[in-house]
């Protein structure tokens, strides 16, 4: 069951070329949706204008080598290990959802492009297709029922829906119905689950303009740019982090020694006082 390619059974009814055409159409929809999203929200224009503004406020120039090392750290921290999440539960759930999705997409392509398209053609890819879908369901349902901010912190019910939930719900529906289809192949229920699988995946890939899908492309760029603004000293116009015991800082802000003494305790970031349980 877990190693028998479900798309091979499907090939009796739907030609392999039609399945491949569907995948290509989904890739085009994601590409088109992301480009239209950027044009519509003017996000790319804002991003580059903001980057130019930051350059004008830069205190120093960031060298090419430094940029490469910041890009590598963005890749290893924010992209590959979801390092932006302070709440460990959110981080682990995001890792399951993200890697589950990547594995599911890659193995779907491997199975559909198998030549010949036979049940036993891609046992490893098929096994990982099931594992990827299960990983996404684990991370996604955990997020949906227990971690989502409005549910966990604001006490809203898990079934209160808003448009922004389109992404997580279509992700969950796609992988849930893919698994149900695979387990019920051949029967009438199998066809029902297959139809729901295709419907939800079309909403997932066709709904990029309205959902949070494109964050997987935008977030890495934003995380990299944030590191650049820290490195070049422009800091998005935020004040520097001062050492409150430094006499130069006392000269700049005389009220510090007046009210807090010459050696004030470093109390750290206010935002870190409470452990990040919700956000
Ligand atoms: C295969 C790729 C990915 C998948 C399937 C995925 C999935 C998700 C999901 C389901 C959420 C919760 C959305 C919601 O609130 O409804 C989320 C949020 C988030 N993701 Fe991803 N993600 C992916 C890639 C990435 C990458 C590459 C980054 C960063 C470099 C990233 C950073 C974030 C951040 C910071 C949030 C929280 C902020 C927000 O909710 O907008 N994700 N992601």
What topology emerges from the helices and strands here?
Blueprint: H1 6-10, H2 16-41, H3 43-56, H4 64-79, H5 88-112, H6 123-147, H7 149-152, H8 166-183, H9 188-206, H10 215-231, H11 247-252, H12 255-260
Helix pairs in contact: 4-10, 5-6, 6-8, 8-9
Bound molecules: protoporphyrin IX containing FE (HEM).
Provide structural commentary.
It is a single chain. With 279 residues, the protein is mainly alpha-helical. It folds into two domains: 226 residues, Fumarate Reductase Cytochrome B subunit, CATH 1.20.950; 32 residues, no CATH class. The chain has twelve helices and no strands. The radius of gyration is 24 Å and the shape is elongated. The protein starts with 5 loop residues before the first helix and ends in a 19-residue tail after the last helix. The model has no long low-confidence stretch (mean pLDDT 93). Protoporphyrin IX containing FE binds next to helix 4, helix 5, helix 8 and helix 10.
